[in-house]
């Protein structure tokens, strides 16, 4: 395989992983980042304090030889802990015993990845270098240096991994035939800290992702290694109950007291943080094509930013890297063909996870507290236990497997129809033992062709 000189724009999570993977394969990598080096500054580490890593993300880390290094910093969350208004909690496991998603401190993970890039020979990291333009045909990146000067950096390929507001993508947007769609939710999010107790222990169960579902909005909390939790309020931007409507400390306190009474005593800096922490926005970006002539390619959020409700944005970006490596291996001397084959293969899956993420917001904020929905979840698990090679819960397919996202979406839609039919004949769990319903289950599940959950399908080019 030819060793190339490449530029990776953006040293966020996906850019740093991609730079490491390329450098490990002998390419000469220049990684450009507009922020200062996270490892020696106090600037915020990115959009959320922590995030959930699941199987697709672990696969990328493993491929980069980093699984063992990052695992000590990962906190397993084995299910959802639902908090109702009466402060009663219910635990819903995410999968089988032993299956978990992992809470990671975003900044810590990014720091580890940067160090892992730096360890590779033939890498150069340029911090405080902002990409302001790309010359697609060379290709070359025009950066603004810390001294405010413009510098032009040539390479054989440029990877735009510079996030949802990508400068590399802006250049592609000038091309005829480039489709682009950016969709904001009318919700925002705010992060708040739930510190350890005065005795230094976890204030909530640490092995769970906590959710306070309140139909039109929700609060969630993920554990951090210092025994705090980061809570995130997903809330309408405007309206009667909204960020705009909470104007004073008294408004915030009254709102939290009525909706989340169990967390108020656990958040000593609630009102202070509510007004000092920024309100983040939530958007989906769809665009195509992602590449230009084998010279430029978008990856991660730059190609497909999604809302965070399936915890898959970074995981999907890491999966981009894993799959792209396969395509580069398949067409080692022809990156134009590799890039085109990759983007054609990957785009439907990026669209599918974007759709699933939007749909999961409704499930998390509205349905998880509904008794009929919980019965339906148990029916889903019942079918998964009885027909394990055919009926695989959607959450399992997305989170604990490598089934391509569009295939997970398609099978999930069939499964939904099966559950709809069976739920019309279900009052309680004992109904499922009824021979008539048993027979109906057999007839319905054959529509789902058998699937081997352990397969890494989607990884290889055709
Ligand atoms: C509230 C919230 C919670 C989330 N939770 C999860 C989760 O649980 N699990 C999950 O998988 N995903 C989650 N995500 C999504 C995840 O954060 C993103 O998908 C992921 O960060 C994308 O990584 P990236 O490297 O593509 O982009 P980014 O993380 O945005 O990194 C882009 C990098 O490029 C740099 N950059 C930007 N412009 C330039 C420029 N012009 N020149 C040079 N450098 C530039 C930026 O400074 C940044 O370092 C969440 C997102 C949000 C908002």
Please provide a written account of the structure.
It is a single chain. By secondary structure, this protein is α/β, with parallel strands linked by helices. It folds into three domains: 5-75 and 105-182 and 283-360, 3-Layer(bba) Sandwich (FAD/NAD(P)-binding domain); 184-281; 370-445, no CATH class. The protein has 14 helices and 19 strands. The chain has helices at residues 13-24, 55-63, 67-70, 106-118, 167-172, 249-259, 270-276, 301-304, 313-330, 335-367, 371-386, 394-399, 405-423, 435-445; strands spanning 5-9, 28-32, 50-53, 75-77, 79-83, 89-93, 101-105, 123-126, 130-135, 140-144, 150-154, 157-160, 179-194, 209-213, 218-223, 229-236, 280-288, 291-292, 296-298. The strands form four sheets. It has a seven-stranded mixed beta sheet with strand order 6-5-14-15-16-13-17, sandwiched between helices. α1 (13-24) links the parallel β1 (5-9) and β2. α2 packs across α9, α9 runs antiparallel to α10 (335-367) and α10 runs parallel beside α13 (405-423). The chain starts with a strand and ends in a 17-residue tail after the last helix. 40% of the residues are buried. The model has no long low-confidence stretch (mean pLDDT 94). It binds flavin-adenine dinucleotide. Flavin-adenine dinucleotide (FAD) binds next to α1, β3, β9 and α9.
The CATH architecture category of the largest domain equals 3-Layer(bba) Sandwich
What percent of residues adopt helix (DSSP H or I)? 25-40%
Q: How many helical elements?
A: 14
Overall, the morphology is: globular
Mean pLDDT: 94
Cα-atom radius of gyration: 23 Å
Strand order of the largest sheet: 6-5-14-15-16-13-17
Q: Total strand count, please?
A: 19
In CATH, the homologous superfamily of the largest domain goes by the name FAD/NAD(P)-binding domain
């Amino acid at each position: 395989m030819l060793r190339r000189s490449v530029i990776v724009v953006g040293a966020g999570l996906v850019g740093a992983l991609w730079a490491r993977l390329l450098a490990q394969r002998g390419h000469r990598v220049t990684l450009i980042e507009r922020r200062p080096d996270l490892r020696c500054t106090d600037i915020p580490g990115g959009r959320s304090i922590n995030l959930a890593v699941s199987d697709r993300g672990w696969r990328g880390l493993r491929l980069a030889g980093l699984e063992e290094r990052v695992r000590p910093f990962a906190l397993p969350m084995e299910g959802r802990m639902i908090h109702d208004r009466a402060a009663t909690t219910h635990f819903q496991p995410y999968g089988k015993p032993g299956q978990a998603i992992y809470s990671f401190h975003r900044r810590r993970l990014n720091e580890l990845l940067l160090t892992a890039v730096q360890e590779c020979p033939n890498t150069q990291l340029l911090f405080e270098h902002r990409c302001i333009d790309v010359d697609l045909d060379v290709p070359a990146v025009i950066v603004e240096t810390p001294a405010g000067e413009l510098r032009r950096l040539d390479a054989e390929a440029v990877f735009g991994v510079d996030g949802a507001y990508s400068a590399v993508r802006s250049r592609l947007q000038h091309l005829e035939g480039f489709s682009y769609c950016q969709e904001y939710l009318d919700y925002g999010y705010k992060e708040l800290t739930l510190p350890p107790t005065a005795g230094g222990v976890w204030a909530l169960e640490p092995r769970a992702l906590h959710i306070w579902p309140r139909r039109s909005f929700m609060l969630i909390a993920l554990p951090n290694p210092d025994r705090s939790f980061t809570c995130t309020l997903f809330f309408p931007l405007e309206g009667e109950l909204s960020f705009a409507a909470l104007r004073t400390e008294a408004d915030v306190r009254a709102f939290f007291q009525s909706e989340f009474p169990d967390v108020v005593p656990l958040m000593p800096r609630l009102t202070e943080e509510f007004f000092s922490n920024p309100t983040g926005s939530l958007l989906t970006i769809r665009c195509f094509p992602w590449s230009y002539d084998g010279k430029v390619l978008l990856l991660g959020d730059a190609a497909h930013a999604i809302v965070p409700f399936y915890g898959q944005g970074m995981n999907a970006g890491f999966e981009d890297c894993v799959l792209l490596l396969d395509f580069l291996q398949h067409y080692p001397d022809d990156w134009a063909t590799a890039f085109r084959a990759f983007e054609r293969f990957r785009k439907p899956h990026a669209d599918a996870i974007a759709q699933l993420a939007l749909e999961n917001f409704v499930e998390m904020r509205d349905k998880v507290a509904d008794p009929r929905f919980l019965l339906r979840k148990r029916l889903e698990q019942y079918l998964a236990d009885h027909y394990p090679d055919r009926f695989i819960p959607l959450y399992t397919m997305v989170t604990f497997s490598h089934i391509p996202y569009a295939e997970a979406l398609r099978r999930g839609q069939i499964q939904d129809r099966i559950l709809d039919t069976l739920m019309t004949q279900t009052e309680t769990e004992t109904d499922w033992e009824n021979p008539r319903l048993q027979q109906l289950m057999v007839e319905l599940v054959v529509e789902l062709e058998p699937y081997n959950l352990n397969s890494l399908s989607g990884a290889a080019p055709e």
